[in-house]
Each structure stands twice: as structure tokens, then as C-alpha cells.
Amino acid sequence: MLVICAAGLGVILHIIAVTMITFLSQVLLLKSIPLRLYVNFLAFNGISLDTSKDWTNVGRLHCLYPWWEDATVNFMISGGYSVSAQIDQVNQKTLIIWGEDDQIISNKLGVRLHCELPNAIIRQIPDCGHLPHVERPSSVAKLILEFIRENCNIEVQCVSQH
Fold first, then answer.
1. Contact criterion met (CB below 8 Å) for 21 and 13
2. Helix or strand or coil: residue 94?
3. Are strands 94-99 and 120-125 parallel, antiparallel or unpaired?
């Protein structure tokens, strides 16, 4: 049996309110333009200010949905997600592509993931930050095509972009 007096309920409600305000302030910080500009300089390797402004606008689009704040607070309260327990269930051949100069997530974690996935290969792209598919799309496409050719036993046809 659980008995909560009015004072105890008040304390519980206060804790919940403070927690919600804390999470909401973190969510609002995620929407801030200065933070997004800073993250762009970490994410990209040698990005200009004009390009960073463009990526800031693109990166904030999802934050502008009316449900985003509530969904993000709920995600934070839930503890987020953890894929660690599921990694050993992946038996497929896996290609891990990582930017060598990633300042957001250390490439040491990419190497760790490579060690934990039994059928994985890792390819690091030099002079590339957090978004290899944006910074070096040709290099990423080449790595994916090579991986498919070597591992999927299918014929891959390249299509010219001209």
C-alpha cells in the first residue's frame, strides 16, 4: 500500500515541474541559432559562414514543428534509446562510414562499433567531419558501390549525373 499526504504530493508535483522545466530549457537550447551555428562548425570540416547559416536553417526545420518540443521532452524523460543490446543481433554484412575529422562523435566509437559488429567493415573518409554523405557524397557513393559489388552478388550500374 502507498500513502501520500498532501505535502508529499506537493513535493512530487514540484519535482515533476522542475524536471519538465529543465528538459524544456534543454529543448529550447537545441533550437537556438548560436548553438546550431557552433555545431555546424564542429560537424563540417572547413565550412564557410554562409554555408553554415544555410545548414543552420536546414538543421532547425524539424524543431519548428508544433509537436517537436513535446516529443523531444518525452524522449528525454524516457531515457532515450540504446542500441547496445541489439548490436549482437546484427548478422548482416555492414558498412560503417565515418568522417575522420568528426568532432561530434569520436571516430573511436566508430572503431568500437566495428569491433562489436561481427560482419562489419569500417571506412573512414579523410578531411571529412560528421556528415560524410553531405561533405563527400562522391566518396560515400563510391564506398557504398564497392561494398555492394563485393558483398551483395548483384550487378551495380553507375548512372552519370550529367
1. no
2. strand
3. parallel
Written as one letter, the residue type at 159 is V
5, 7, 22, 24, 54 from 11: Cα distances, Å: 10, 6, 16, 20, 45
CA atoms within 13 A on the CB side of 5: 1
* Phi, psi (degrees; rounded to nearest 5) at 97: -115, 130
CA 156 to chain centre: 29
Q: How many CB atoms lie within 10 A of CB 69?
A: 16
Q: Which three cell numbers stand for residue 137?
A: 557524397
Give the amino acid at 102: D
pLDDT digits (tens, 9 = 90+) for 7-32: 544 555 445 555 555 666 777 777 88
Q: Which among 19, 34, 122, 37 is positioned nearest to 77, based on CA atoms?
A: 19
Is pTM beyond 0.70? Reply is no
> Which of helix, strand or coil describes residue 153?
coil
Give the whole-angstrom CA distance, residue 100 versus residue 11: 49
pLDDT tens digits, residue range 94-151? 999 999 999 888 888 888 889 988 899 999 999 999 989 989 999 999 999 999 998 8
Rounded CA separation 136/130 (Å): 11
